Amino acid sequence: MWLASSWAISKMTGKDISQKADGKKFISGVVEGFYGRPWSADQRKLLFSWMQKSGLNTYMYAPKDDYKHRAYWRELYSVEEAENLSHLISSAKDKDVTFVYAISPGLDISFSNTKDIQALKRKLEQVATFGCEAFAMLFDDIDPELSEADRSAFQSFGLAQVSVSNEVFEHLLQPKLFLFCPTEYCASRAVPSVASSEYLNTIGSKLLPGIDIMWTGPKVVSKKLTVASLEEIAAALKRPAVIWDNIHANDYDPRRIFLGPYDGRSPEVIPYINGVMTNPNTEFEANFMAIHTLGQWCQSNPNGVKKDIIKGDRMSPIASDIKLETESDYISDDDIPIHIDLRYQPRLALKSAMNDWLAEIHCRREPPRQPFPRVIPTYLPGAILSGPPGVPTYIPPGPPVVLNPTPPPSIPPGIPSCPPGNPTIPPGITPFSVNISGDIPSAAQPCMNPSDLQAPSTPPKNYLPPSPPAGLPMPDIIKTCLTPSFTTQTMTTAGVTALATICTNAQAPLPIPTFLQPPSLPVSSLLELPQPGPISDALLGTDSGAEPMEIGTTCPLDNSENSQNNTMANNENNIAPTLEKQNSTDSLMQIESDMGEKNEDTISDGRGNYVFSEDDALLLCDLFYMPFEHGAQGLFFLQRLHWLRTNAHIIVEKNSKEANTFESTEWHHLADEFSSKVGVAVNLLSKLTSGPNKSFMCDMYSYLWDLVSILKICRAYVQWLAKGLATYPLAQQTFSCVTWFSKGYKEAFMSGDQEPWVFRGGLQAELQRLLPIDSAHDLFYIKPPDYIITKTFNIRPYKAVDEDALYHICLKTCDDGMDGTDVFPDNPQIMGDKLIGKFLTLSPDFGFVVEDDVGVCGYVVSAIDAQDSAKKCKMAWLPSLREKYPLTEKKDGCSPADEVIQGFHNEQRNVPEEIYSMYPSSLRLDILPSRVEDPALPRRLLACVLSALKSSGSKGVHCELNVGDKFMIDFYAKLGFFAITIMEETSEDTIYLGRPI
C-alpha cells in the first residue's frame, strides 16, 4: 500500500523524515491558537503523546483567551503559574516535542516605547527560565495603523514589527526556532497582492534570516496549497513559509466540527515550505484524525526534493514510481486516480488511522475540570458587508465579551480581530464596536443578541420573508437562483421555557434562542478566576447564559484506583451523566493531575454498553467531514431527501388511483431506506453517550445532538409525505435560499473560492434548506442542552392508536400547562374532547407525536383549513359532544366540568375572518415535561407540523387561547407566535396567536 511504501523509502534512505533536504528541521505540529476555552493541561499532555506517535515535533502555545498571552501580555506569570508552565514545557520535551511560547503584543504595543520593548523582553526572558527554547511573535488581526508616536519613529507598520521582532530575537540569543506571524497572513489579505505588497516585501527583506514566517495560504482557510502560490510567497518573504493551517479550524461556525483527514495539500509542496502546523478544532477530542493524518502526510515525502508538480495528466517522477509500486493494489488502470499523488490519499489515511482512533474512543477518560463556569457570551449581530468584488462576505458573531479587565483601547471593547486560528472576519473588513446601529438583515437573526429578539405584537405588513437565511449570503453566481416565496420567518428566537415552568419536576434548563457551542471567557491568568462583574452577572443569568456541559459524576483527573473504580461503576450501572457547574480553581496550565497513557480496556456488549465500530466512526467522520466537502454518507441524506421531496407527487398521484404503481413502490422503498439511515445516526448518538470516553462524548455531543435532531425532523416529514397529502404542487414551492442542488451552489461550496463561513451551518443547515420551512431559524438554531440526554425520542406522524395517549396528555396539561386530573375527576376525557378531539376526528393527517421508550409523551395536532374544520365541527362534532355531555341542572353550583359542558351547548363564537385569511390553519401543541428531557423537542415538533402545512399550501397558522392562560400564551410566544391584532371585536376572554409559514 502507499503508506507502507512511504515508510519503506524512509527506512531505506536512513533519512530522518523531520529533516528537509537542506538539513533544516521540518516543522510539523499543532497550534493552539483559537478563540474559546483553551485546552486543559491534561489534554495538552495527551496531545504531546498523540504528536509523538504521529511523528509531529512542534507545539505552539497561543490560546487567544489567555489574558497573559494577548490582552495583558505585559504581565509576568505568578509563581504558581510559572511552575505549571514549566511542567508543561517539560512534558513536551519528554515526548520530543518542541514547545513554542507565542506572545501577541500587537493589540496595544507602542513600538517606539522603550518600556513596552523592555516589558516584552522581560516576559519572554521569564518564559525562557521555565525551560522554553522556542518562541513566536504574532501580529495577526491587529489594526495595521501606527500610533502618532510610532509614525515619527518608523516609516511603516512592517518596519515597526520587524524592528521589535529582530531586537527580541537577538536578545534571546537567536533561538533555533523563532516564528513570526504577519498581519497580512494570507494572499487574500495581502495589499494589493502578494508580489506587490509593500508590507510583505518589507517583512521578507528586513526580518533576520533565522526567523521563520507563518502563512495560511491563499485564504484564511485554504482549500488547497499549490507549488505556484508557495513559490510566490517564498519570493516575497525571501524564505519558504511555515504554514499555519486552518483546514480543521472550526471556531468560525458554532454548528460545524471537522473530523475528516488532512486534505488539499499534495506531498509535492513539502520541499517548498519550512513546515506545517495545524490549528484544529476548538474541541480537543475531535482532533485525533487531523493530527494522525497530518503526520501521515508529513511522512509521505521523506526525501523532500523539489520535483515538477503534476501538469495535466502527467505525474511527477516520484508519484510515477509510487504508482508502479502500487498498481497491483488496483484491479485495472482505470481504478488508479491518476490525478492523485499516490503517496498520500486522504481517504486511505483516514482508514489507516481508524484503529488508533477507536482505541482512543474506547479508552476511559473523563472531561477536564473546568476552571470557571462556561457561559454564553453576548455576540455581535451578524452583518453582511461587501468584500472582494462579486463576493459578498459575512461577519459571523464576534468573540465573547471580555469581562474584567477592560480590553486594550486599540480595538473595540471585547472584539478582538480575527487571527489565523479564528477567521471570523473576512479580508478587508474592520471589526466594529458592540454599539453598532442600523438595520440588521433578518438573515443574521440566529446570531443576534437574544435580548434584541422580542416577539412583535403584530406581524409585518405585507409580510414576505427575505432571503437568504441565517448567515448564508451567497456569491453572485448563486444569487440568480433565488426566487421570492412565502416561507416561515422567525418572529422571535426566545427560548422555550415549557420544560422548566410547566412542572416543578422538569429536568430541562431554560434554553436560549441560538445554537451556540459556548466558548470560554478569556482567562486573566493561569490560576485566577475572572471576578464577577456587572457584565458577567448578566451573562450568567438564565436568559442569556448556561452552565458548562460537564459530567456531574466526574471524579478527579488522576489514575487512582478509587477514581477508576468509580468510573467503571458508573458505566456498569449505565448511570446517566448529569452536567453541573464546577467552580474548580485549577489553572488551565496545571498538569499535576496525571492523565497518563490511555487505558486499553474497551467496553463490550457483555457489559450492557454500546461499542463504537469502525463503521460508526466512519459515519461520524462523514457527517462532520471538511470545510469544503461533505462526507459520502452525509451526501446520502442530502440527495435522498431532495429526491423524495421532489418526487412526492408520485404518492399524491398514486392516491388518486386504485392500482399501485412501480414509481410509488420505489418511492416508499427509498423512503424506508432514508428512515433506516436516520435510525443509524440516532443509534450513533446513543453509542456516543454510553461510551467510556466522557471527554470525547462532551466534545462531540452538542454537534451530533443538533444533526440528529434535524434528521429526525426530516424523517418525520418524509413519513408524512408518504401519506400523499402534499397537495400543494411541490414543483412550485420555492425557498428563501438556494440549496445544495441549486445551480452553482455545490460548485461554489467546493471550489474554495469563498471562505467556509460563507456557507454556515454544515450538513444541518443544508438539510434545513431542503425543508419547506427552511428559514424558520428559531426551530433549527437551538442551543444544545447543558446536560447529556440519554433517553431517545422519536417524532412521527399521528396514528389512530395514539388517540388515548393524546387524551391523557391533554388532561395532564389542560390547566394552563398543569395537570387537570384533579380538576375533572369524573370526566377525564372532557378536556380532550374540547381541545383536540375535533383535530383527531376531522383532521388526523396533520398531527405529529413525540414518543419515548414508554410511549407518546407529546403531540401537535392541526387543521389545514381551520375555517372549513370549524364548519364541520358545528355540523358533526359539537352535536356528538352535546349528546355525550347533556346539560343537567345542579343546585349546588357549577363545577369546572359543568362549565365546559355548558360551553358545548352555548352558541359557538366565530373566529374573525381576518384571522382565517392570514393564518388559515390552526393547531394545538402539548408535551409532558416530566418525560420530555430535551428542551428543543417543542420546536422540533412544531417544525414537523409546519413543514406538513406548508407542503399542503398553508401560509400561516393560529391558535386560540383563554386570556387567563398566561403560561400557554408565553409558551406559544416562545415558539414564535404573536398576538394577532384584529379590527372587529372579539370575546374579552379569548386571545388569538398567529405565526406565518
TrEMBL record:
Catalytic reactions of this protein: 3-O-(N-acetyl-beta-D-glucosaminyl)-L-threonyl-[protein] + H2O = L-threonyl-[protein] + N-acetyl-D-glucosamine; 3-O-(N-acetyl-beta-D-glucosaminyl)-L-seryl-[protein] + H2O = N-acetyl-D-glucosamine + L-seryl-[protein]
The GH84 domain, residue ranges: 26-302
Domain of life: Eukaryota
InterPro entries associated with the record: GH, Glycosyl_Hydrolase_84, O-GlcNAcase_cat
Gene3D superfamilies, sorted: 3.40.630.30, Glycosidases (3.20.20.80), STAT, domain 1 (1.20.58.240)
One term of GO molecular function: [protein]-3-O-(N-acetyl-D-glucosaminyl)-L-serine/L-threonine O-N-acetyl-alpha-D-glucosaminase activity
Name of a matching Pfam family: NAGidase
EC number(s) stated in the UniProt entry for this protein: 3.2.1.169
This protein's UniProt keywords: Glycosidase, Hydrolase
Gene Ontology annotations of biological process type: glycoprotein metabolic process
The protein's name: protein O-GlcNAcase
